[in-house]
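Problem: given the chain below (469 residues), write out its structure.
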Amino acid sequence: MDGLGRRLRASLRLKRGRGGSSQDNSGGAIRELERPQEHPLPSFAGGQHFFEYLLVVSLQKKRSGDGYEPTITYQFPKRENLLRGQQEEEERLLSAIPLFCFPDGNEWTTLTEYPRETFSFVLTNVDGSRKIGYCRRLLPAGRGPRLPKVYCILSCIGCFGLFSKILDEVEKRHQISMAVIYPFMQGLREAAFPAPGKTVTLKSFIPDSGTEFISLTRPLDSHLEHVDFRSLLRCLSVEQILQIFASAVLERRIIFLAEDLSTLSQCIHAAAALLYPFSWAHTYIPVVPESLLATVCCPTPFMVGVQMRFLQEVLDSPMEEVLLVNLCAGSFLMSVGDEKDILPPKLQNDILDSLSQGTKELQQTLEQINEHVSSPFVQFFVKTVGHYTSYIKREGNGPGHFQERSFCKALLSKANRRFVKKFVKTQLFSLFIQEAEKSKNSPAGYFQQKILEYEEQKKQKKSREKTVK
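Solution.
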């Protein structure tokens, strides 16, 4: 492993979920941003700063003169007057980023053409704070052979569509001059991140074009604002997507393979998003850098993306039970074998029926596609665990206590009960229910809304049945 990989492992630690032990495993510092629970997270609220840094990561000659290594060559804003501890924290954070901007380990040479790539990575720092790197890799403006560089916007906010538009604006300006990027990013930094459904408009001047007004709108449904299901639907069948979901629900090891960074990044974020309202709390690396390929030998659950060029290294690794997903061919190269039997048959068919209706109509808007794909999985959790609030018992103003045995018994379907008895033992469910136990407020949010709608539908159905009798 190269020096940068070693610095990464030394600089950041993977934090396990609440109640779990904190350990430094081969997953390094990376874990997906946990999906927001039904209580609002400050980093997603309106009024926050859009971003912490804009970084340019370029390929520079190694000191040995043999090849290139990624290095931060531009940083905005420059932090000054930091306390010693803050400065050390910033240095640790920034030292990790180049590796994830160029994770593919290429022996880079100068190029005259290079297709732009948009991808992301997520870092979890030692204090538990999470940061997303939104990246655009492209050839800088100029003539003749040159090396690609990466524009990376580091933010604690998960809103991939919105930041992709910001990167479009950065790319437009990079063709002119870095000096043109600065005032745009300064205006963005001074603007407040909009609340769900709201828009912020930035005024920006571009030489030879004049003043432009750029509108950035946040999706109204914030629980899907950080996901794009289109790549997953293009790469895999609905049956395969359902098997990936089943594996993730039981917190198994899942490896995605693809040629390009964009596909890996989008598909792995989409797979994690299927778990809403639960959060993947284990090792999560959308694109595994070459120096961290040992992650696939990790004995604990993980969800990682690996470029196809490293397929042989993955196959040669001593892996325990794993689902190996080839996004290029739309196939499973390895599986446990029981993926079709994990979920209750009737609920599994309900998801398949719902997904099969209209998934080929990719001309829909992104929000419509996201809602179409997400909805049946949300309904699955509504029908299996949506009654959880009735089994959190409270005494006075103290924290609640979850009645697990009664909760499982309440399910009338034997198949649903068998599944839920396994699911309640996962960290996915444990973290979710711990938050519910601690909260003294009534549940709110999208998931609770769907639970109430489902209960109302059941009441109306019973009422109709009585009327018929």
